[in-house]
Known about the structure:
By secondary structure, the chain is α/β, with parallel strands linked by helices. The protein has helices at 9-20, 38-50, 63-69, 89-99, 121-132, 152-156, 168-178, 183-192, 197-205, 208-225, 240-258, 271-279, 283-302, 308-322; strands at 27-31, 76-79, 109-113, 138-144, 159-162. The chain folds into two domains: 9-162, P-loop containing nucleotide triphosphate hydrolases (Rossmann fold); 207-322, Zinc Finger, Delta Prime, domain 3 (Up-down Bundle).
Amino acid sequence: MSELYPWLVPTYHKIIQTFSEGLGHHALLIKADQGLGAEDLFEALTKHIMCQTPDNAPCGHCHACHLMAAHSHPDFHVLASQESKDIGVDQVRAINDVVSQHAQQNGNKLVYIQDAERLTEAAANALLKTLEEPRPNTYFLLQTEPSSSLLATIYSRCQVWNVPLPTEAEVLTWLSSQFQAETSELLTALAMNLGRPLLALETLQQGLIEQRKNFLRQFWLFYRRRSPLEILPFFEKERTVQQVDWILAFLSDAIKYKLEIQNGWQTLDLKTGVTQFADEQTALGLLTANKIMQKVRSDLLTINGVNTELMLLDGLTKLITDVFKDK
Length: 327
């Protein structure tokens, strides 16, 4: 499976082995973090399930494979949220009607459900009956992130597969083949993205390590001078949420330092500043700061029609009044 990222290959082979042994489950729930390229895993699995003569991989030559390559297989269906809305009951009922009918190509029928956690309760209940009483040669492939919640009854009807994060050694080998940089820079990009290789590569390609460092330097000036004007002008419209995430990572690592947690740091390259900041705050203060910025992040993502700068100013002002201690 040369088209798959190397860290996805073991999961792919384990799943298709169950089909080769005649034990393939009719409903697969695959949980994978963003930044692992799991979309490629789902594509490979859908092609394998729909192939008329699969072995360790789809043959690529049968009529079903040609239809899948042309994105025109009549028995392959995608169920996804529309315009960032939840997946509604009417969408599920329409899919249920389709899969209750005979396959047009006399082979397998497959429904790929993206972001399965977006199913409303009514939609999940409508899907449940189909999962409980599966039709012959009918398969469901559900995708979600590990942190997402799914109706317990749906979860219990599926065979669950967790796509693990690759090891640091695996990612470094792959990253070094994709981007020329010092190992320390690769490790920084990897830490910034909690071990997710594709996001780490994006960080390297876009020069985000230096951008983050410069932005957090302004956060430090804001902290020292207790003035939002030290940082507000440096927020970028298209990158505001990411910049808030940089602040949250800084605060999170300060909390880890305070609690003597050594693992999972995202700002190891800035450890001196993080530890100095943490030493000047109480653990409760750091938790309060994190809560304030989490709310800012949530508001940025969910509230429309409100001036972004006002939301940022409100959060920064609360950091000054509720957290930072005068020296």
